[in-house]
Amino acid sequence: MNENARPRGGYDWRLVAPLMIHGIFVQTLTGMLRVTTSYRVLELELPVVWLGAISATFALLPVFLAVLVGRYIDRGHDARAAKIGSALMLAGAVGLRYFSPSAAGVLGFTAVLGVGHLLLMASHQMLCVRAAGDGNRDTMFANFLIANGIGQGLGPFLVGWIGGAAKVPETAPLFTIGLAVTAASFLISLSLPAAPRKAVGAKGQSAAAVGELMRIPGFVVSLIASIITITAQDLIVIYLPLLGAERAIDVHYIGTALTVRSIAAIVSRVFYSRLIEGLGRVPLTLWSMSLSGAAYASLGATNSIAMMYVAAAILGLGLGIATTLSLTSVLDLSPVTARATALSLRITGNRIGQVTLPFLASFVAAAAGAPGVLAVVGASLIVSAISVRTVRGALR
Prior knowledge:
The chain is mostly helical. The chain has a single domain (13-394), classed as Up-down Bundle (Growth Hormone, Chain: A). 82% of the residues lie in helices and 0% in strands. It has 13 helices and no strands. It has helices at residues 13-43, 49-74, 78-98, 103-132, 137-163, 171-189, 205-214, 219-246, 251-270, 272-279, 281-301, 305-333, 339-394. Helix 3 packs antiparallel against helix 4 and helix 8 packs antiparallel against helix 12. The protein is globular and about 50 Å long.
């Protein structure tokens, strides 16, 4: 049977189903482990700057590996990369559960998680391209990110449900459940079908494509917008627990706020394709990032639980669209022959942002607390939105 056999323009359902399920599990375990790691830092009574250091560690090795991973996937190894990434995430989860009684242990196994997460994100994106068929890419990515949003909501919800009324919950039970979810994710990854065999490109082709991509009008500013949005999505998981600890807010309320954000992101992605058609990519980027920035700053400015939920919902709506746009816009600007390279550059940029911005945020947090970090990230989102509108709008 021909491995490529499917209706022209249709979805490859053999790949879509396990990919969606795997996406939910990966985001659930990532949310659980990242939030629990933040609480482990507080449990160990480490200085607040360690929150930024650990977040940066998650992203450090991927900065140097992302382009190599992209080229590996470009040679047809998308499903294999997902399996390797799942195995690394499992190793990191085992380490965090049983071998992280100190800052060094948390740092080391967070780095393992980061490399596994890189392989999974890069492979999932190319698996989406392969599963989508002709003309379905925007809808496929929107649906896949809905699945991701479900996982992003489940992870913090489980942390909040298990942590209950504790200000800083015991982390061992949380890491145990995270480990169980990670083991299930690894098993699911084994069902992802491999890509059809294809010829490997010329040795220098990928390196040449990097320079070509960077010269595409609007590509760099879209890349920067991607860095800001992904880092903003990452930092809220780190600094909302800190905000809760500073203001003596129960873990349950923090977990619920993160879940509200994820549910709102799911809702926004349901209407993503229609919004693209009605508004266009550039105006939608401006409004979604600006809305996210305002909501981000509002989270740190309110002491009301109800208003925190409202801000979290607005943040989810804005970032749900903005993160989807940051992915599809990079693909939209890239030639077909360089998609994996473009996605690897996007991930490289995202990881650089996740290395540098958490360190800067940590110093802001040391001086102004979590509200200061939230305000700075909110302002960055708005400035980036205006830049995209200015540069890409001028190209029309």
